Amino acid sequence: MALDELRALLARHARSDQRTAIDGVLVSKVERPGPPSPSMSGTVLALIAQGAKRIALGDRVYEYRAGQYLVASVDLPITGHFTEASPERPALGFGLTLHPATVAELLLQAASGDLPPAGGGAPPGMAVNEASDELLDAVVRLLRLLDRPRDMTVLAPLIKREILWRVVTGEQDAMVRQLGLADSSLTHIARAVRWIRDHYPQSFRVEDVAQLAGMSVSAFYRNFQAVTAMSPIQFQKQIRLQQARLLLATHPNDVTGVARRVGYDSPSQFSREYRRQFGAPPSQDATRLRDATLSTTTALV
To answer: For residue 1, what are the contacts with CB-CB under 8 A and spacing of at least 6?
Structure first.
């Protein structure tokens, strides 16, 4: 059975940094559930072979387990943790980074009748689906190459394209296809997301970011909410608080300075919103985080 072989391959090749010899392919092995931690999703396909994971994005919660995969088509601020994992039965996951240029190239090569009709509007930036037998088989064949280095250079790109094709023609075809379309609603929102992420300490007017995305204010707001499950201002707040938590892990005695660095003029507002987000005031949470190492690029797998 493909899922059984996938578990064996993932367990054998898992490393602490999740990386593999195949570019863009990640493998994870987690032996115990951890507390929810903030990170950025990246644009990825994440498939679980064993265990279960829960991810929160705004007011949406995504749960996926063995035989299911999650797709993130925009780099989003999330909070996630494995909910089922143990030393005897660790959580095992596979991840593949999604690149817009690769999706675009695949769409250009497809015949017009090979793809389902495109839907209107911006799809959600994240979704969970059951993995088809064809998708599982392709993932297994890709991971087998880790034991056959001689075949990796030639065959890995072909199998990664097959995996992408299975996703592009699957239930979330619209979401992944829009990732590769230069003028799609998702691409316009992704541009705005990148701008907010890169300039998160700065105040901004929604009208200006809508203009940057090439949309009217009403269309921008509607599509931004559909993709990210947040308003633009809520999105900025999530980024600010996540960055503040990362900074506090290394500067636990400088709560006021950290608040200023992430864009808060009012320390009291910062403390109030931080506590609401993470369940503890900044100083207390900083003490708890002092020995922890967090990363804004934690993979979904």
So the answer is: none
Residue 214: what residue type? G
Residue with tokens 């690029």: 297
Here the tokens at position 216 are 């009217």
Q: What is the pLDDT of residues 101-153, one digit of tens each?
A: 888 888 888 776 776 665 556 778 899 999 999 999 999 999 999 999 999 99
DSSP one-letter string for 223-267: HHHHHHSS-HHHHHHHHHHHHHHHHHHH-TT-HHHHHHHTT-S-H
296 and 246 in contact (C-beta within 8 Å)? yes
Nearest-angstrom CA–CA distance, 207 and 106: 34
Kindly give the interhelix angle for 217-228 and 206-213, rounded to the nearest 10 degrees: 80
Domains 185-233 and 240-289 share a fold: yes
In DSSP terms, 53 is beta-bridged to 64, 82
For domain 240-289, give the CATH number: 1.10.10.60
Q: How far apart, in whole angstroms, are the C-alpha atoms of residue 36 and residue 285?
A: 13
SS3 51: coil
Secondary-structure class of domain 185-233 per CATH? mainly alpha
Query: What is the pTM for the complete model shown?
Result: 0.82
Q: What is the dihedral of CA 215, 219, 220, 221, to 10 degrees?
A: 160
2-99+109-179 sits in which CATH class? Answer: mainly beta
Name residues whose C-beta falls within 8 Å of residue 108's C-beta, 6 or more positions apart in sequence.
none
Per-domain residue ranges of the chain: 2-99+109-179, 185-233, 240-289
CA–CA distances in Å: residue 116 to residues 45, 107, 123, 163, 184: 20, 12, 15, 17, 16
Q: Which of 194, 195, 162, 190 lies closest to 175, judged by CA?
A: 190
Distance from the Cα of residue 6 to its chain's centroid: 22
Biggest CA-to-CA distance, the chain? 60
